[in-house]
Amino acid sequence: MARTKTQARGDMKGMIPVTVAFIVAKSLLASRQVKGAVEKTLGARVRNGLYRPLYIVFSAVGAVLIVRKVYKGPHKVLYELRPPFSWLMRAGQVACVLATMEATRVIGPGFFGAPQLKAFFGGGDPVAEPEAQGPAPEADGELSSRTVFGVTRHPNNWFPTSIFLLEPRMTDKRAAFCALVALHGVVGSVHEEYRLRKEYGDARYDRYTKKAPFLFRS
């Protein structure tokens, strides 16, 4: 038993720095400084055409590997809900997955860098992806607050985070991972607010904030 506890502590201590390193790397890759350095080194066409798709691949693969580490190996169970409460939590997780998919649908293929990739391999000159990934403007120019973007201004941060928070069987590793992901979501959302304001202007974004909350609509 003592060996198992030692293994669990060691496994969690190993998971935390790996997760932090991934979050830091992901944030750096999303920065203008790194994007500018890539453009200077490889040229605007390569940067504009391939950067966003490769960034998405890096984010997806890294997330899968870390989640696998979080859910496998030694751990300590903090709590475990039984039916029907566990069913409610699972239903909430499914709803969050669907909401995340809806947010991605609303943003469009540009979220994955598909238009840039198509232009690159089609021999054209790709245009760089928008700095801010948010709701597209409506016909009148106002930011859309339809579907999930009326529930929260940052659905691609909060709904994926909630998938893990709604886990009915919470372990020490999962709890630590949830805390890191939630912190990353807060910091990332605040930074995204800054980018969206710069993209669309304070007046237009202020009108949008009156229609959609930062976190979740109460």
SSE diagram, text form:
Layout: H1 2-29, H2 32-42, H3 44-71, E1 77-80, H4 85-107, H5 114-121, H6 155-165, E2 169-171, H7 172-200, H8 202-209
Antiparallel strand pairs: 1-2
Helix pairs in contact: 1-3, 1-7, 2-3, 3-5, 4-6, 6-7, 7-8
* Tally of individual domains: 1
> Uncertain spans, ≥5 residues at pLDDT below 50?
none
State the strand order across the main sheet: 1-2
Query: Roughly what fraction of the amino acids lie in strands?
Result: under 5%
Q: Give a short account of the largest sheet.
A: 2 strands, antiparallel
Provide the succession of SSEs.
Answer: HHHEHHHEHH
Q: In angstroms, what is the radius of gyration?
A: 20 Å
Write up this protein:
Helix content is 67%, strand content 3%. The chain has 218 residues and is mainly alpha-helical. It has one domain. It has a two-stranded antiparallel sheet. The chain is globular, with a radius of gyration of 20 Å.
